[in-house]
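Morning F.,

Quick status update on the modeling queue. The single chain you submitted on Monday has been processed. Sequence for confirmation:
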Amino acid sequence: MQKFDLNAALQKIQEAFDARFPEYQGLSGKEIERKAVLEGKMTEAALVELYSKAFDVPVLEEDEIILPETREDITLAFFNANDCVVLEYDEELVTLLAASPYTLGEVSFQMKRMWQCDISVRFVRKPFLERLLSKLQNEEDEAEEEQSAEDENTLRTLAGEARIVRLVNDIFTRALELGASDIHIEPGEDSVSVRCRVDGVLTEIINVPLNQFPAIASRIKLLGGLNIAESRLPQDGRTNVSLGRMQLDMRISTIPILTGESIVLRLLNKESVRFDLAQLGMSEAHLKQFEKLIRIPHGIILVVGPTGSGKTTTLYSVINQLNDARKKIITIEDPVEYRTPGLCQVQVNHKVGVTFAAGLRSIVRQDPDVILVGEIRDKETADIAINAALTGHLVLSTLHTNDAVGAVTRLLDMGVENFLVSSALFGVLSQRLVRKICPVCHGKKQPVKCRKCNGTGFKGRSGIFELLILNDEIRNAVNRNASSSELEKIAVSHGMITLAEDGAAKVAAGVTTQDELNRSTAEL
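Structure tokens below.
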């Protein structure tokens, strides 16, 4: 049985409080304890004497207290949560050091369940107990830091091994040879899969034993300036890697998963990306219309489509065409993927309050001619962008919608007024990316795997496009809240070529296949 009667002791304490503090009549002992100490009506030492008397235990001399080594089967967090710590223990009895009796019921239950022994208690002042717990926490942290330092040194050694350096460099080289946009490194139950995204489709390039993952992960984290000893939290970094004469700019992202960490490297190879509108795959009619559209002095032009549809490349191709010494061009992006001379590029940083909306509000005061907003995600950003467009700035941005007229609906759904949308919005380019038929094997099976396309039958990608240009009839329809289908009918009647039609034209021209077009436009 327990070495104290908790209910009897709490009753004695309540009676003593009621007699001493009639002004607190009706409050619980725990509430009286807090108020009496805060209001200076009772000292911490007097509380210890009261509790010790109620439990019939001696008052300890604080400077003579020595705590035993912490047992591994109970955490310091448990003691912190319950304002107590183990003072003494053996196989039959655990003596707790506590500052208050009001958590002892739960503590006793948990301790008896874990250690199958009886419980005793001694009381000390709360500030003293807090100092003890703080000291224990510091000792625990120091032990963890020592262990972490040992682990980090081990990981650094593994990451520096010649075979690991060669393996990681080989992964980078093979990704470059394939023209990959991303590398995915994923530990499974038995092995590590390394996949590359080539022309929008993932393909495995290597599979290595699972025991090599810590070294591979550490090598990549070191390159990206990440914490190699941290695998419990997501991390992000960026680095440049030299591979022969090639300079590879990489963005690194890690997240914890059940089998370890998923590592994704975004390859930002400027040499493989051409920001040229004429190279995006636009038809002659689309290119002529779009080049005329981007020459407007003010207004909003949107590029829309799902993630991975090439919106950023299109926007940078526009910026590249507009970029000259006579214009002030400022971008706000999350993240800044391509660093470009002549531009003022702002990185979104939520930790310090630099959101799209906050950054855009400041950008407007910088006297820009052209503003690129990485994405309009909310009404606040949309309102500021529209205001900028109506006050003499050309604003370029993106939205996640399936088609061009869907951008109008999306802005209205955000809460932007119809007349503001119709006044500020000048054009919407909707796009997708389709893989192009390999120019060497022409997508046909051959006895030897085609080196150009790695046997996939496709090499490179082309855009398919839909360009909505707002005219008076469409603006009037927006003002009267016309449906998306009605807006599309009006646009088509004025010559808009739909995504499906542009895709069909590229199939007919032998640029891509019908199956590839179907894959890219499955949601339409």
